[in-house]
Amino acid sequence: MSVPPVCLIQHFFMKERLISQAINVLDENFQPGGFTIPCKGLYPFQWKWDSGFIAIGQAYYDVSKAKQEIATLLDAQWDNGFIPHIVFHNESDTYFPGADVHRSDLSPVSSKKYKSTGMTQPPVTGFVLEEMYRIAKDKEDMFGYIKSQIDKVYDNHKYFYENRDVNDEGLVFIYHNWESGTDNSPIWDDIWETMNPPEYTFERRDTTHVDASQRPSKREYDHYLYIIEIAKENNYNDAKIAELSPFLVIDPLFNAMLIKSNQALINLYTLIGDNDDKIAQLVKWQVKSIKGFNKKLWDKELGAYVHYDLRKNKPISFVTSSSFSPLYANIPSKERADILVNTMMTKFGGEDKYLCASFDPESDRFDPKKYWRGPVWINMNWILFNGLKNYEYNNIAERVKEDSIELIEKYGFYEYFNCKKGTENAGYGGDNFSWSAALLIDFLNN
Ligand code: DGY
């Protein structure tokens, strides 16, 4: 018998150690109510897209937790199919703004069971169900679970297409930066310039957990709260929000997640059978969305997909990691994908950097330490890794994966990381962060 080389043995032990640390992080953040908080103190409730990524990791080592994670989220669905971005299952005074600020009870269609916010987050749940099916060892059991949940996800997509596609072009709007998931991206700076909110008095909690230099500013929070106030005054009615919100954007990441999830629902319903009407509807949405996406969000000069400001009726011409997310949903043609990946490697891919910064490192708005203004995020890397593989950019995909593993191994299970190689203490934001742990488990098994 030949003996495996030392480096392979070391690699094996490194992998086993990291996986067990990751499981530990997730188990520590798991709550008795059957959901997982993103991290202690900073984010003490259930967040929508966090839960999706978390369930992917849990599916590898505790299927029942993964199932509960998504079931508890979908249990908070509103009567109109909407799924909120935070579900306040529990009380906590470590987070602002809490349930008393968001007041989901103002909406006549909100959940009577749970308090929540009245905004949403990227629709990842469809493709998460498909991932859970891929990962599950007992396919029959997971199939039964998916059958019991999938219609709720379908209703959520229906909600988006019926309430948020204002131009009937297959593209849905977000009305708040927190809906994008990329909370304080420089993309929003020019929108803040168009607003002049009051200077609210409130007590931030995030900056008691994390260095203020790594978080949004007080003035940014004024803007965030102001949009919530407008939505509340209109009882979270989408038509009113579309008319009145100063923030109304078509976000490429959000729409790419919807398109990826449409496809996952088509695949899963096909497997289930007897759902021809739903499949036909999903295909219709899908064709329209991909066409609308390529038409409206492609910026020829930048060689990338960009955000679109529906208030000003013009594109927001900056390159972010969201610009590359359409690869994951098979949106670009091969020719366009080549241009996109070239943009990514030219701007973000220098040898002195980890892939992939969240904002264009060549821009003067780039900040490598500040939340979504530049740092590397593991969930975005996971989306990009899978997107690059879709188009067979296997070497770059491998680099994204290896960079992600190295960042966590070197610095810990942080929320976000400095993209500049050789930075001391390059992990920022929340520590023991659930989706960094969950997606590392997937990376190491992939
Ligand atoms: C926060 O509070 O920073 C959250 O990201 C909002 O979703």
TrEMBL record:
Keywords: Glycosidase, Hydrolase. The keyword Hydrolase applies. Residues 43-436 form the Mannosylglycerate hydrolase MGH1-like glycoside hydrolase domain. GO terms for molecular function: Glc3Man9GlcNAc2 oligosaccharide glucosidase activity. Signal peptide: none annotated. It comes from the Bacteria. One of its GO terms (biological process) is protein N-linked glycosylation. It holds the Pfam family MGH1-like_GH. The keyword Hydrolase applies. Belongs to the glycosyl hydrolase 63 family. This is Glycoside hydrolase family 37.
